[in-house]
Prior knowledge:
The complex is a heterodimer.
Chain A: H1 2-9, H2 20-52, H3 81-114, H4 119-133, H5 137-151, E1 159-161, E2 164-167, E3 170-173, E4 175-178, H6 182-210, H7 216-235, E5 239-242, E6 245-247, E7 250-252, E8 255-257, H8 259-286, H9 289-297, H10 302-332, H11 344-353, H12 358-387
Antiparallel strand pairs in A: 1-2, 2-3, 3-8, 4-5, 6-7
Helix pairs in contact in A: 3-4, 3-8, 3-10, 3-11, 4-8, 5-8, 6-7, 8-10, 9-10, 10-12, 11-12
Chain B: H1 2-51, H2 54-62, E1 65-70, E2 78-80, E3 83-85, H3 87-100, E4 106-111, H4 116-121, E5 127-128, H5 136-141, E6 144-146, E7 151-153, E8 155-160, E9 174-179, H6 184-195, E10 199-204, H7 207-215, E11 221-225, H8 226-234, E12 246-248, E13 256-258, E14 261-263, H9 267-286, H10 293-299, H11 306-311, H12 328-336, H13 339-346
Amino acid sequence: MAGVGLSATDAPRVAVWRDVRILRGALQVGFVVGVVALGVWLVSNLTTNLDRLGIRSDFEFLGAPAGFRILGSDFEASGTIREALIVGITNSIRVAVIGMILALLLGIVVGVARLSQNWLIARVASGFVELLRNVPPLVLVIVFYQVTLEVLPRIQDAAVSNGFLFSNRGVWIPWVTLGEGSRTYLAVLLAGLAAAIVVARARRARFERTGEPARAGLLATATFLVVAGVGWLVLDPPITPSLPVLDGRLVEGGASLYPEYLSLLLAMVLYTASFIAEIVRGSIQAVPKGQTEAADALGLSPGQRLRQVTLPQALRIAAPATGNEFLNLTKNVSLGVAVGYAELLRVAQTATGNGQPAPQSLSLVLLGYLTLSIIISLVVNVANRRLQLVER
Amino acid sequence: MRKRNVRLASVALAAGLVLAACGGEEEAAEAPAESTESGSEETVTVEPAQDGGSLLAAVQERGTLKCGVNTGLPGFAAPEGDTYVGFDADYCRAIAAAVLGDAEAIEWIPLSASARFTALQSGEIDVLIRNTTWTATRDGSEGASFAVTTFYDGQGMLVDTDSGFDSISDMAGTTVCVQAGTTTELNLETYFAAAGLAYEPLVFEDNDQLQEAYYAGRCDGWTSDLSQLAAFRGTWPAEQGGTESVKILSDVMSKEPLGPLTSDGDTEWFDVVQWVTFATIQAEEFGITQGNVDSLVASTDPEANPGIGRFLGLVADFDPGLGLDAEWAVRVIQAVGNYSEIYERNVGPDTALGLPRGVNSLWTEGGLLYAPPFR
Lengths: 392, 375
């Protein structure tokens, strides 16, 4: 530090090229210039080469008709490439979001089970973890796909029961058809939800003030049901149930879960759950022993101890690491390519295979997954901040 | 502390400068490299005119033909020991026989679909015979010249024999497995949309996954090039019912003409490749086969039969100026036989592929094969 002090006091005697502050500044400027120059060079190189090969480097192809169809969507061949890519990323999100929810639930259950004092439960849970986390996810996806195709009956022998239809072309579940007034009805439902929240708040405020029993949940639910019921009667059932019906090799009605989707989702959930289980286990063990002892001293049952004392603290510890697993899951969705699931990468590859420019298509895939990951990252960070213990 | 900072700063600054300089330098270096590249391209195109040798002379001097083939496609180019067998491979042999007098003087260069044009442009191979579809874009912008088509392929549909489908028009409401590739999905959509048929496409990157899905009944049809479908049908595993359990519908959804390619700008070499291909077609038209070519050479009277005489190199003053000796066509037929023999041996009805001649018949039999006259 003496050196810096010296240069500060005897500034005139230090040459410019030896002044640390100037050098530091120059270093940073130089670095930025270097990075920008490299970037400019790479981009100009790419565009030059594309021009020479007669390949377009703009994004106008996004507005061109796609010319192909996408399995499991209403996308028509006359739709644009942009719409096709949006279908692709929607499909990616469908696996990622549902996968995250299921993986989290399963991961917590397995993580807790690993610490069970029941020998069998603990062994089964650790077997689950060791088996799944040590297999590459691509292998899991392919294996589950084969199994789904083999286990479910062919479409000709499809099993139909209670509105469900099972075949290896997909599993169809009862669904609803939205009628004309359905949008208005959705607004009614949202209004009902808002009314319910208002009621709940008012009841809670009254409880704070007077100490009367709030019954917030009960009254809020009642409010919602009344609004929903009145809306239903006024708008005349805008929503009708739709059951799958087999017609030759086509299934009409219902909602379908394709084997490609099922096997990818299953692989993602099980693979990620095995990691989350380990995080949960570690986090539970990281809760100070004193907390457990205190809970015991208060006479809480083991179940209460887990739910009220250990888990709330463990999940706080687990949150950041679990966020990482969510990111991994989202990125692994691109493995759906192997089984023909139409996620973003599959759609982009179909487009490039049919004459659309590869550099732009693939950079959009990059951007799509990057955006998804960043959004998840942000959500996890916000959740993490809100979960943190507020120390007073 | 201060010294260290200064040193650190100067190192980093130097690194930054080098980085920046690198960008500049390489950019600068790239421009001349590019110009020399285009320059050398020009010289390549000019060279043949200067010394009259072109690739033909280079190949003859080298003593081997560098032939680019598929890495493995049964019936067309499949590795067997050190060599390749198949329809495409036989055309490599035919060229080697004509140019070098030895049908086995070939350096086999297996190429992936994405590497093939680069290999041709860079001169890594002399000729590319790798089931490559002739399209305007490829002809125009890949720096390649397509010689006459040796195999008229098209996108077809493979279905179960007991499926009850006799043509694509029966396939309303089905799921079709698609092998991802150039325009496969587009052809499928165009064809089904034109026929007004509802269907669902299931696209696979990988053939093995597609085949497993088809076995399991995930899809009703499998679409790809007819020749490829025939190859898969020919090797259909017995535990899945064997070859007879699947059939290929007669509908053809697209035009896929396949043939040999040479590099742009070398017309002399292109002519040689072109006429070797024509020779196999012309031989079939003349009825010249691997079995009778030697006896025909001995017995043909060029006076009475000038057409066959010229083909066999028996007419003394006939030289088409291809830069080859008089007996080149004879050597081609001795080595691989005529078109019909090449076809029947590799992909015809008696092979595993079992492809009927169809449009790949002589023009005299209603097909598309037509060789210009040898005179």
